[in-house]
UniProtKB/TrEMBL annotation:
GO biological process, one term: regulation of phenylpropanoid metabolic process
InterPro entries per the UniProt record, alphabetical: MED33A/B (IPR039638)
Domain of life: Eukaryota
Sequence segments annotated as region (Disordered): 756-782
Protein name, UniProt field: Mediator of RNA polymerase II transcription subunit 33A-like isoform X2
Any single GO CC term annotated in Swiss-Prot or TrEMBL for this entry: mediator complex
Coiled coil: none
Residue stretches of biased makeup (Low complexity): 756-777
């Protein structure tokens, strides 16, 4: 047709098209303007549509949201339609008799009267019948529509979005369904709709359970199954306990580090760890509890005969097993709902619909965890090798078995009298084991009941018969509760016997506050005795009362001329020296009492440090009391709670990691302590719910405390930080501090003129007990009897003069050592100032080296070769080979401050009375030694080993740890040895598995008798990881080892399981299970070494660097299966590290998921999105990258959807787009579904990709 169509006044269409095309091609700026104008017009149109829909449906008011996106309106419109159809069905079937019980509060519900405006008053029966028929028909059609909508994938997706992001609104839908179900048995109109309603309920149930979501499974999707994650089993049928629970063992063992006092309650941390591993391993609670108990038993057995030394021993390990673990389980069980328990009288019976959904309308129906705990305790009998009790608790185990035997005997013969108490330890000689102690701990905390005594094989028949024939003895606590006076014999028995009830502890605490002077001191010693160290069933209460006793009340009739704390001086002295042992302080820290403990010690230091001391103050109990003695005990214990001696360089390297224990300050401890009180009033933890029965006094410990409240302590605190950071400045002559320093120096020089001790320094002098009022021939009047704070302020200046005099030969080394020792004897707190000053000077490295030749300074030559040999033996047993330092026969050299410090410390006697001094000197000395050049540590260790021979094992073991501060290569070797011993691999991945693999190979089994101490590589790493200066190296090494051993697990599985494999599916499952164990070990070691700091670094730097770095050239070709497993293992490493640090699912840790964690997770997701967009060039293999991204996002969707809500909306869009390009639309949709309310529009946009 030649003529062209045109309109009057317009160009022909083809001519217009040509003109527009030419214009567009020549006007790019105008194109941009037009596109921008079009987008603006489109946005305004969409905005009007959103407002119209919102106004018609009243979505903003109903859902309390500000709807700005069309997708939001679409999702909420769909849900409102579903609810409206259900409500209209209710109205049409005329449930007038049940209208008052109908749920409300969700849009769509309408009143019946509003719809019947035409029905009232009509007289036409046919119209009434037709209207009734239409109602019934419409109701069936509405149910059919709902059934079809819920059956479709798009409808199920929209329902799931509401369920995940608006659970309270979705609960309203479930209530309506439950309402329908309760009415279907009474209303005849529902008979025809029964089948439709069943299909509707099934479809909604399937949408919540994510069934039918994946249509096809790739290899990666077999690893991360969004349905059930059952493709990677963790519970290996070949072994009783798999290695995926290794985090339990590593955490428990890390709490035993004597240099690392936990400031967060081990109960809280272990509670979250248990919940995290139960979710990650997808195990039953029976399996989880069993793994927890077995790890605790291994902890006890591993060091049941530990080497002697200033370290926590068996008491702290038993505290974890019998007190911390039961308290953690109590936290887990407190939210458990027993379905079979009697419901309230006004409660409605549970419907079939509620039981079918598994969580009920309000999420209250759960499987009883208490039954799983009982099954786990019954299963402990299989682990006979772990149940053998150590010698020190054998009597306690026998008493527990005898108690069960008594109950069984009484149940068989009700006519027999009960007996006053359980048999004593000497009455029953056999039958008790660790399971009896565990069961008693659970019964004491109401975790289980006494029916456990009747379990099969719980108590042997011989013990029952022996219990019948054995006379019962009354315990000393029963005698005490009956009102017997506190005689010396009864006091000794109460100190040695742990209390069994809270009432006994409360009575003792009242005596400690209100009794006579003798009774106060005795009661304090009783509380700090066996009840604190071995009273596992009430240990948390004893810890609370002990800390409270350090803040006593103002007694009536107090003398206003002196501080009220002087009235409690005998009791305070007994408590301070009772809690000063290393084991006891560690037990306090396990229960999370460090912040409260520090806050209670500060007022004591402030008050007693400001008082003028009395030379002799003998108490009525015969104990020697002095202001210096009480102040020193409180001050030195306070300093042990934070590393006051840490040099400035170390403080700068490790600051900012207070949650892990390094970088602690007094301000941080007080901040933690003050933060606990508001949370305790809202949701107190079990250890916080302790009865306040210290005669109801208004304790200052219940109020906020700040360091500014203690000016003297704060002044010393600031001076100490200045001393550590920079050299001392000179003092003006006549200054008060200068005068005190001169008096201290004069005291030291007076010993020279009086002909002080003549003992040679080559052997350690015996010395006197610390805290004495005078020593040698020195007159007491010559000592500077001044307030403690004035002495502490002047001591660093005196030390500088004394050390300078010694360096220039004006003062001999022997007189310097004896002078310092005399100062410590007179004023024990001076040890803190000596350590602080010397450690700072050692770090500065400005002092000359002095020969340790046995003439001027003590010589280590006698035992040094053996120490070096044993040290190398320990390292070699752990798989670490260090270069030998050839000895040229020259004398060992040490810096002058180091020589003076070690010479001073070896003069201390090994006496329990001065254990509080050794507890301060030991860690400080080791810290100083590791900061010197390499040969220094063996030299110092040799001096101590020849001083205290029975500490040889401990000293050599400590010496071997110093290697890892000096050598990065040694750290790499040790970490590799951890993996090979855990996996049971010898001499590389090609060697067969050994029987010593898994956790026993990693941490050791039972401490060896004689010979070298436990040299398991994992144990050595846990004791050394805090010494590593470049802690970021641990991240790089662990990531490399996880990748390597994950790849090798494919070949290893093929060699060891090829004869039993029947499909690629099972082969992949077994290989993935091995890779999961590798990742679990890597995550556990990483968290133990650096905690949140290393996890942040892992997300920010380590993994992105690993993905971007060019792959190393391999000697052999790596298969695609190895690449897949490598990516899977790395994704699981990220998941477990993040979950252990920040929490799992909807349980963010109170100390974990901070704003910084939010930024770290979001930044890593931004990195992944950038690579998926093609903006970043990868260095790893594409298969590894694809598997890593898919598995990581799949893990987050399954285990930690709360992380998705912290990711930017645009980043989520990019991630979903990248996953769709990989044909993983279901994973992309699942990711968007969990992104929160603000991302619901992205789900609506993704519906087009659903088939």
């Amino acid at each position: 047709m030649s003529s062209r169509f045109s309109l009057p006044g317009y160009y022909p269409i083809d001519s217009l098209s040509q003109r527009l095309t030419s214009y567009f091609l020549n006007s790019s700026a105008d194109i941009y303007f037009l596109m921008k104008l079009f987008r603006l017009m489109l946005a305004k149109t969409i905005c009007r549509i959103i407002k119209s829909v919102d106004a018609a449906m009243q979505l903003s008011q109903a859902y309390e949201l500000h709807i700005t996106e069309l997708g939001h309106a679409y999702v909420l419109f769909f849900f409102s339609t579903v609810v409206g159809l259900i409500d209209s069905t209710v109205d049409d079937w005329e449930y007038q008799n049940t209208t008052k019980d109908r749920p409300s509060g969700i849009p769509g519900s309408m009143d019946l009267q509003k719809m019947d405006v035409d029905l009232k008053g009509t007289q036409n029966d046919k119209r009434v019948e037709r209207r009734d028929w239409m109602r019934r028909t419409n109701s069936l059609m509405a149910l059919e529509v709902l059934e079809k909508i819920s059956e479709s994938k798009k409808g199920a997706t929209l329902l799931r979005v509401i369920h995940l992001n608006m659970p309270e609104k979705f609960d309203g839908l479930l209530k309506r369904l439950c309402f329908h179900e309760t009415c279907k048995m009474t209303s005849p109109n529902l008979i025809a709709a029964k089948q439709i309603f069943i299909k509707l309920s099934t479809n909604i149930q399937r949408s919540l359970a994510f069934e039918g979501q994946l249509s096809q499974r790739t290899v990666t999707e077999m690893l991360v199954d969004i349905e059930s994650c059952n493709f990677v089993p963790c519970w290996n049928s070949k072994s009783a306990l798999p290695a995926c629970w290794v985090l339990f063992d590593i955490y428990m063992e890390s709490t035993m580090d004597p240099k690392q006092l936990p400031i967060t309650s081990a109960v809280d941390i272990l509670t979250e760890t248990v919940i995290t591993l139960q979710v990650l391993n997808q195990a039953s609670w029976q399996e989880t509890f069993l793994a927890l108990w077995v790890s605790g038993l291994r902890l006890v057995q591993r060091e049941r005969d530990p080497p002697e030394g200033p370290i926590p021993h068996l008491e702290a390990r038993l505290c974890v097993l019998l007190s911390i673990v039961p308290l953690a389980i109590a936290n887990i069980l407190k939210d458990d709902v027993i379905v079979n328990s009697s419901p309230p009288q006004d409660a409605k019976p549970l419907t079939e619909m509620e039981l079918k959904y598994g969580h009920g309308v309000n999420g209250k129906i759960r499987t009883p965890k208490r039954d799983d705990l009982i099954l786990a305790l019954q299963s402990l009998g299989q682990f006979s090798s772990l149940l053998c009790p150590p010698e020190s608790v054998l009597d306690a185990a026998n008493r527990a078995a005898a108690k069960a035997a008594d109950v069984i005997s009484l149940s068989k013969n009700t006519n027999d009298s009960k007996g006053s108490d359980c048999p004593s330890g000497s009455s029953v000689k056999a039958g008790g084991n660790m399971r009896h102690l565990i069961v008693e701990a659970c019964i004491a905390r109401n975790l289980i009941d006494a029916s456990a005594y009747f379990w099969p094989d719980y108590v042997s028949a011989s013990v029952i018969s022996l219990s019948d024939a054995t006379p019962k003895e009354m315990s000393p606590w029963s005698v005490f509760m009956e009102g017997a006076p506190l005689t010396e014999s009864l006091i000794s028995s109460l100190i040695a016997t742990p209390a069994t009830s809270l009432a006994e502890i409360k009575k003792v605490s009242r005596i400690a506050l209100n009794g006579s002077e003798e009774e106060k001191s005795a009661a304090a010693k009783i509380l700090c005795g066996a009840s604190l160290s071995c009273g596992w069933n009430i240990q948390e209460h004893v810890v609370n009362f002990v800390v409270k006793l350090l803040s006593p009340p103002l007694l009536p009739g107090h003398d206003e001329s002196q501080n009220y704390l002087m009235d409690h001086m005998p009791m305070l002295s007994a408590v301070l020296f009772g809690v000063s042992p290393i084991e006891t302080v560690h037990i306090l820290s396990l229960h999370g009492a460090v912040p409260e403990f520090a806050a209670a010690l500060m007022p004591l230091c402030e008050v007693f440090g400001s008082l003028n001391p009395a030379l002799n103050n003998q108490s009525k109990t015969g104990d020697q009391l002095s202001v210096y003695r009480v102040f020193s005990a409180a001050f030195l214990v306070l300093l042990r709670l934070w590393k006051f001696y840490r040099p400035a360089i170390e403080r700068g390297l490790k600051e900012g990691d207070g949650a892990i224990g390094v970088g602690l300050t007094l301000e941080y401890l007080l901040l933690l302590r003050n933060r606990r009180f508001p949370s305790a009033t809202v949701n107190p933890s079990p250890q916080d719910k302790m009865p306040m029965d210290l005669d109801q006094f208004d304790s200052p410990s219940d109020k906020p405390i700040y360091i500014d409240f203690f000016p003297k302590l704060r002044a010393w605190y600031c001076q100490n930080k200045i001393c550590v950071a920079s050299p001392l400045s000179g003092l003006c002559t006549g200054n008060s501090v200068h005068q005190v320093a001169n008096r201290i120096i004069s005291t030291v020089y007076s010993k020279m003129t009086m002909g002080g001790p003549s003992s040679d320094n080559s052997a350690a002098s015996s010395g006197t007990s610390c805290g004495s009022s005078s020593t040698g021939g020195e007159e007491p009047s010559e000592r500077p009897l001044l307030p403690a704070w004035e002495l502490l302020e002047a001591i660093p200046f005196a030390l500088e003069s004394l050390l300078t005099a010694c360096a220039y030969g004006k003062l001999s080394s022997r007189h310097l050592t004896t002078g310092l020792r005399d100062l410590v004897d007179f004023f024990p707190a001076s040890l803190a100032a000596i350590i602080s000053y010397f450690s700072a000077e050692i770090t500065r490295g400005v002092w000359k080296l002095v020969p340790m030749n046995g003439t001027d300074w003590p010589s280590p030559a006698q035992i040094l070769p053996k120490v070096e040999s044993d040290m190398k033996g320990i390292l070699a047993a752990a798989g670490v080979n260090v270069p030998s330092y050839p000895s040229d026969g020259s004398t060992s050299m040490l810096p002058l401050p180091m020589a003076a410090l070690v010479s001073l410390t070896i003069t201390f006697k090994l006496d329990r009375n001065i254990e509080y001094l050794l507890a301060v000197a030991g860690p400080a000395l080791e810290n100083c030694a590791t900061g010197c050049s390499w040969p220094s540590m063996p030299t110092i260790s040799s001096l101590w080993a020849q001083k205290i021979q029975r500490w040889h094992k401990y000293i050599v073991y400590s010496c071997s740890r110093s290697v890892f501060r000096q050598s990065k290569g040694a750290v790499t070797q040790l970490l590799r040895s951890c993996f090979t011993s855990f996996l049971g691999i010898r001499n590389g991945p090609d060697s067969p598995l050994t029987s010593q693999g898994s956790i026993n190979g990693l941490l050791g089994h039972i401490s060896p008798q004689g010979g070298l101490p436990n040299s398991a590589p994992g144990l050595l790493f846990l004791r050394s990881c805090r010494l590593i200066q470049d802690v970021e190296q641990v991240n790089d090494v662990i990531v490399g080892l996880v990748a390597e051993f994950a790849r090798d697990s494919v070949d290893l599985s093929a060699k060891t399981t090829s004869t039993r494999l029947r499909s690629a599916h099972s082969s992949l499952s077994i290989t993935a299970a091995r890779a999961k164990e590798v990742s679990s070990l890597g995550a556990s070691l990483l968290c133990a070494a650096g905690g949140p700091r290393l996890v942040y670094e892992l997300y920010r730097r380590t993994i992105p660097t690993w993905l971007l770095s060019a792959e190393e050239v391999k000697l052999k070709e790596v298969s695609s299966a190895s690449r897949i497993i490598e990516g899977y293992a790395m994704a699981y490493l990220m998941l477990q590290c993040g979950a252990c640090t920040w929490g799992i699912k909807d349980r963010p840790l109170s100390w974990g998921f901070s704003s910084q964690a939010t930024r770290v997770v979001a930044a890593h997701m931004d990195f992944l999105a950038g690579v998926l967009e093609g903006n970043v060039l990868l260095g790893c293999h594409p298969v590894t990258w694809k598997t890593y991204v898919s598995c990581l996002l799949g893990f987050i969707v399954n285990f930690n959807p709360v992380w998705v809500r912290e990711v930017r909306k645009e980043t989520l869009r990019k991630l979903a787009c990248g996953l769709r390009k990989w044909h993983k639309s279901e994973l992309a949709l699942s990711l968007l579904e969990r992104a929160g309310i603000q991302a619901m529009d992205l789900v609506a946009e993704s519906l087009s990709s659903i088939g």
